Amino acid sequence: MLKGRRAVVTGSTSGIGLGIARALAAQGASVMLNGFGEPGAIDQLRTGLARDYGGEVFYNGADLSQAGQCEDLVADAEARMGGVDILVNNAGIQHVAPVEAFPVERWDAVIAVNLSSAFHTIRRVLPGMKARGWGRVINIASVHGLVASVNKAAYVAAKHGIVGLTKVVALENAETAITCNAICPGWVLTPLVQAQVAARAAAGNIPLDQAERDLLAEKQPTARFTTVEQLGALASFLASDAAANITGAALPVDGGWLAR
Question: Torsion over CA of 10, 64, 151 and 181, rounded to 10 degrees?
């Protein structure tokens, strides 16, 4: 479905980003991975994806908290792949604290990685997409781009910003073959969420499986985690020609969270 397309997926050495990169590679796209990790493990991941799906897989370790490195990531992808047709902005970090106790440096870091990096990569890929007459920008927001939770001021602000940025990019390119959409997951069992589950279990002196059930029961009526494979399938669809007239959307994948 995506044979010949070239994709950059930020934050793709684990979790949701890796699931999306894997799904795009499975559909025939060349993929540029990005993220942190041990170099040997990342190289094994890259070569494994290339072997499993038969396409080209590259890696760039840009630190997306730095505007210049966001630009360098896109420039490297264009140089090594010949262009960027699909951009998936997934990289994200989290910090939890009440507003009055929120460390200023953590606020700045969350906004830089979760919001500003998407602005910098999008502004850098758009000229090439316009020149080629086709493009897909997929921003991984969150259900917290649509509703709020306590103690997550920076994350909620950034994800609301991502949804707004998505709409602006969609409108500015509405008469072209470039679309921009946001995926808004609820609870997904990624390393980030596993850490929250472990912290809940430790604080309550309860088993991990009970901590998972309690976490889901608070927000997600299906009582099931969304999987990275499901998000990868949705991203692949949004990158396809079948989704050519879906743009500016914020698509919840939240197990009924917003239906309450």
Answer: -40
Residues labelled catalytic = 155
What would the pLDDT profile of 194-252 be if each residue is shown by its tens digit?
A: 888 999 999 999 999 999 999 999 999 999 999 999 999 999 999 999 999 999 999 99
**What would the two tokens of residue 109 be?**
């870091």
For the segment 89-146, what is each residue's pLDDT rounded down to a tens digit?
Answer: 999 999 999 999 999 999 999 999 999 999 999 999 999 999 999 999 999 999 999 9
DSSP letter string over 97-143?
B-GGG--HHHHHHHHIIIIIHHHHHHHHHHHHHHHHT-EEEEEE--G
Cα gap 79→159, rounded to integer Å: 30
Please state whether the predicted TM-score (pTM) of the whole model is above 0.90.
yes
- Asked if 83 and 5 touch (Cβ cutoff 8 Å), the reply is no
From the list 176, 142, 139, the residue with the least C-alpha distance to 159 is 142
Task: Please give the torsion angle defined by the CA atoms of residues 57, 17, 202 and 207, in that order, rounded to the nearest 10 degrees.
Answer: -90
CA 184/CA 256 separation, integer angstroms: 12
Taking domain 6-185+227-250, whether its CATH number is 3.40.50.720 is answered by: yes
Q: What angle do CA 66, 72, 75 make, to 5 degrees?
A: 150
Which are the contacts of 79, defined by CB distance < 8 A and separation ≥ 6? none
Residue span(s) of the chain under CATH 3.40.50.720 come to 6-185+227-250
